[in-house]
What we know:
The protein is an alpha/beta fold.
Amino acid sequence: xxxxxxxxxxxxxxxxxxxxxxxxxxxxxxxxxxxxxxxxxxxxxxxxxxxxxxxxxxxxxxxxxxxxxxxxxxxxxxxxxxxxxxxxxxxxxxxxxxxxxxxxxxxxxxxxxxxxxxxxxxxxxxxxxxxxxxxxxxxxxxxxxxxxxxxxxxxxxxxxxxxxxxxxxxxxxxxxxxxxxxxxxxxxxxxxxxxxxxxxxxxxxxxxxxxxxxxxxxxxxxxxxxxxxxxxxxxxxxxxxxxxxxxxxxxxxxxxxxxxxxxxxxxxxxxxxxxxxxxxxxxxxxxxxxxxxxxxxxxxxxxxxxxxxxxxxxxxxxxxxxxxxxxxxxxxxxxxxxxxxxxxxxxxxxxxxxxxxxxxxxxxxxxxxxxxxxxxxxxxxxxxxxxxxxxxxx
Length: 394
């Protein structure tokens, strides 16, 4: 009881301070990993016109021990020109201040602006399925489809990426393809990547003269080493700043079921997005080709219908505990070697403006009415539709 009283007293004191200094806190769900950070940052920039700067001062608080503390090094210089005024102030806080902040949010959310794009409504200790989170995601897709503005400082990126190229031994004329895979399952990745499925595409890239860089933070598979792929993910250069720069210098990106693909989206770089079982949230980006994962029931070897797959992905059980495919006796079907190579060639043609959408591709997003993917500008692979449309989307 005494603890409860102390918490209320702290809440009252901090609340008074917040009101005096007109503070509003940007609250999020996915902040904490590279890709998701920039997904939500982009959403903040897109809704910035609705923020009342004359009345409030907006803050994003980053944990001292967390990933966001790296953002402090590049914010605001990487995001604004000298003539632009930053939307919010970024403050790195220690664990004690973070604890106090959580107490405040547990009592009152009137001090916050929720920019979370996850499944939650993002209230402190939230325990609902959170359709608000989906509505924000839908709003994000809608805004992104009409707003072509770049939310980064082009001059800074050009200068800094030139310096990084020299450090990594990348020549000016080199065409870079970043590749990424998942060595464990979780979230959008229902089944870890089989590195062997990348080999056919890697051989194609090498033949085409691309310089391949392994990105993310996973351990690079041994079978990649003979192809002279630069292991950026496990190098001394791997950090948030260079994650951005390595994406900026790329011609293409191949990412497997992870928020890493969001960096390519943020910087307007072509991306092949593979293996996500979240059919209703693939990618919004017009320079993206995607090839999702599908599910099969072990008992009768039948494919799971797309509506049921979506229902499983957004249920409370999955959001809070993860989905146990083994326990549910469900097989996950990831893209094969030929699927990945075919889809990458589609992406190449898309960039070269030699790509023509099929009738089914044009109508495909209507299968996701009421979900973010309904408003997506990305393209589902023709091979995916040929293999699975009649089996999963009937």
